[in-house]
Write a structure and sequence with these properties.
The chain is of the alpha+beta class. Among the domains are: 169 residues, no CATH class; 59 residues; 153 residues, 2-Layer Sandwich (Heat Shock Protein 90), CATH 3.30.565.
């Protein structure tokens, strides 16, 4: 389930859908519970009363200070000023009109036309505002159609206490008249206000736009208390599933990484941020086109979502595969720094251990350095700053250099001797007189070890010769009476013996004597091969033809046991340098081994191929018996795969085949895998002319 690609794609598609459903549902809950967006609650709240009364007080201050005046009409002694009503509140009210009168001045946001050019006509226009609520303030008293403004409006009359000054002409006897500012503070009783509004939000306001959106997503409003928990639970389950399944791929074990997961994470994040920002650039060219804004915003959000999915996907895979630090630039730099610090610490530890490895060595080196320094200083003190001092110091330096070179020479002599010992040459010895006293023990030990190696090699060679001679002599001694036994058995077989029991005994004697003869011959051959006491005639031979010839000669034996030979060679001619007689003996021993120990009614595979100028010959079969033995043990002499030792084998066939292969500059490999028996021969190929 965690390796299903289709299920992951469905999950990625469902995530934005669930997020949108969850977000819009929560959005509808928040909007409905927010007083500013619910007109039924807002227009019956103290907040609206405060906002509305402060709005009228603010306009009244504009009247006094002559702000936002665009045109003036005269109605008798009263000047009528027009305000564009620029005060846009977050919850802007629909069709809100006012007329504010102070002394001989009036301010209104009703457009001044031929029909509204007097105080009375403006009042009439405000009164006739369709579906409107009236809010008037006369002599400091509020008159309103709305009960809440009627009750709470008086609390906000302090907003009409406006302080301003006017210039008053002062004239005193015998003095020139002058203007003096007089400060005045207004109260609510100084204003006459006529206003009306509709209990709805202005069409151009943000609140109205949000309410339009709420109408379009009414389904989320109706089922939000079901959508919120359902979407949250599904979203949580999908995220948990993705966290578990990301990185697993059908047909692959462990976390499957690709080339993208090896790109430094900082590069991926940088590109993702750039692409995400570019996807919102078209929004800058749009001016109040709601549908275009929604379209481009949705596109940008989709692009950002895809980028986030890709980035988080590779981050999770890197964390799971424990390659997160290695695939970041910061991580790589940190690892490099840490490795450098570790190397420095190890180097310091090594230097510390070397310095205090041996107190005697350290003391000797320090004493020698002190001697050099003291001698150089004495020369300078005795002879002063003269040319003679320079010559003496130069001579002293040459002596030191000579001593250092001599020490290195002794090291090289020791190294060359160890190399000779490694290569098997133990005849030469180190001359102790060429070495300083501190190297005397080392030279003595190396010479003793070299002598020990040489004696051991000579003893082993003597032992091998003795064993070979013993096997040859014993085999020869056995062969002579054995030949007589075989001849007399042949004579007995020619006699007309009618006793069936006697015939059976003669057959057993013939079989056992032939087996003993074969064992004797194998012993002699194994002895010669192991000691290299054979003469090889290396020549170019076609190994494919040789193997097919050997397979043909073993065809009868293979058929008796139901063995089918399958030879796979790309060409009919692959040449190697080998002795044809002994190479045939190698193949013969292997085929003989198969004919005895392979499972009946099975196949024998022989693959001949050329790889990198090497000829590889693979021979594979299934063993009839369980192989509870290692390949190394099976290659030893007299070791056989059947522990009962009921077969005719001597246990020397594989050993002889291996030795013959190696004598012909080949490589012999035996591999066991359960019941699979596999031999691999390797030779240098010869290119066809």
């Amino acid at each position: 389930m965690r390796r299903s690609g289709i299920l992951k794609i469905i999950s990625y598609i469902l995530i934005p859908i669930l997020i949108i459903a969850l977000g819009l549902s929560i959005f509808s809950i928040e909007i409905e519970g927010n007083l500013y967006y619910n007109k039924e609650k807002y227009f019956n709240s103290e907040i609206f009363v405060s906002s509305y009364m402060n709005y009228l007080a603010n306009e009244a201050s504009h009247l006094i200070h002559d702000n936002n005046v665009f045109s003036v009409l005269q109605d008798g002694e009263t000047e009528i000023h027009y305000s564009l009503d620029n005060e846009q509140y977050y919850n802007d009210v629909k069709n809100r009109y006012f007329l504010i009168i102070y002394k001989n001045k009036a301010l209104t946001n009703v457009e001044l036309t031929s029909e509204t050019d007097t105080i009375d006509s403006i009042k009439q226009y405000i009164e006739n505002n369709e579906n409107s609520k009236k809010v008037n303030m006369i002599n400091g008293n509020i008159e309103s159609d709305t009960e809440i403004i009627q009750c709470l409006g008086m609390q906000y009359l302090s907003g009409f206490n406006i302080r301003y000054y006017t210039l008053q002409l002062i004239s005193e006897p015998n003095e020139k008249p002058y203007e003096q500012p007089v400060y005045i503070t207004t109260t609510a009783e100084d204003f006459q206000i006529y206003s009306s509004y509709v209990e709805d939000f202005a069409d151009s306001s943000e609140v109205a736009e949000i309410n339009k959106i709420m109408d379009k997503i009414s389904i989320f409003k109706d089922y939000r208390y079901f959508i919120v928990p359902t979407s949250a639970v599904l979203l949580l389950l999908i995220i948990i599933y993705l966290l578990i399944s990301i990185g697993y791929k059908k047909g692959e074990e462990g976390i499957a990484l690709n080339d993208f997961d090896k790109i430094p994470l900082e590069v991926i994040i940088f590109l993702a941020v750039c692409i995400g920002c570019l996807s919102f650039v078209p929004l800058m060219a749009i001016n109040k086109d709601f549908n275009a804004i929604v379209s481009f915003t949705a596109t940008g959000v989709l692009v950002v979502y895809v980028l986030c999915v890709i980035t988080l996907h590779t981050i999770i895979k890197r964390i799971k595969s424990k390659t997160f630090i290695k695939t970041t630039l910061i991580g790589r730099f940190s690892i490099w720094i840490w490795k450098g610090i570790k190397k420095l610490i190890n180097k310091i530890k090594e230097m510390w251990k070397t310095f205090f490895y041996s107190r005697s060595i350290t003391t000797r080196v320090l004493i020698d350095c002190a001697k050099i320094g003291i001698i150089a200083l004495l020369i300078l003190l005795i002879f002063g700053n003269t040319f003679l001092t320079f010559l003496l110091e130069l001579a002293f330096i040459c002596v030191i250099i000579y001593r250092v070179i001599k020490i290195f020479k002794q090291f090289f002599l020791i190294e060359n001797k160890l190399k000779e010992m490694y290569e098997g040459n133990n005849s030469n010895k180190l001359d102790e007189t060429e070495f300083d006293p501190q190297f005397s023990n080392i030279v003595k030990y190396i010479n003793d070890i070299s002598n020990g190696f040489e004696n051991a090699i000579q003893d082993r060679m003597k032992s091998e010769r003795f064993k070979a001679e013993l096997i040859t002599n014993v085999s020869h001694d056995i062969k002579t009476p054995l030949t007589s036994i075989i001849n007399y058995v042949d004579l007995l077989k020619q006699e007309n013996i009618e006793n069936e029991k006697a015939k059976e005994y003669i057959g057993i004697l013939d079989n056992k004597s032939q087996r003993l003869k074969k064992l004797t011959e194998d012993l002699v051959e194994a002895s010669k091969v192991s000691t290299g006491n054979i003469t090889l005639n290396l020549e170019k031979i076609n190994i494919v033809e040789l193997i097919k010839q050997a397979a043909g000669e073993f065809e009868d034996k293979f058929e008796k046991r139901g063995l089918k030979t399958i030879i796979d060679a790309k060409t009919n001619e692959i040449n190697i340098m080998a002795d044809s007689r002994y190479m045939y003996r190698v193949i013969e021993n292997l085929f003989s081994n198969i004919s005895k120990y392979a499972m009946e009614n099975s196949r024998v595979y022989i693959d001949i191929k050329t790889i990198n100028q090497k000829v590889i010959i693979e021979i594979k079969n299934i063993s009839k018996d369980k192989l509870n033995i290692s390949a190394e043990e099976l290659m030893q002499r007299f070791v056989r795969g059947d522990k009962s030792r009921n077969t005719e084998g001597s246990g020397l066939g594989l050993s002889i085949a291996q030795n013959l292969t190696e004598l012909q500059n080949g490589v012999f490999k035996l591999k066991l895998d359960g019941d699979l028996f596999k031999v691999e021969l390797e030779f240098e190929t010869i290119k066809m002319q």
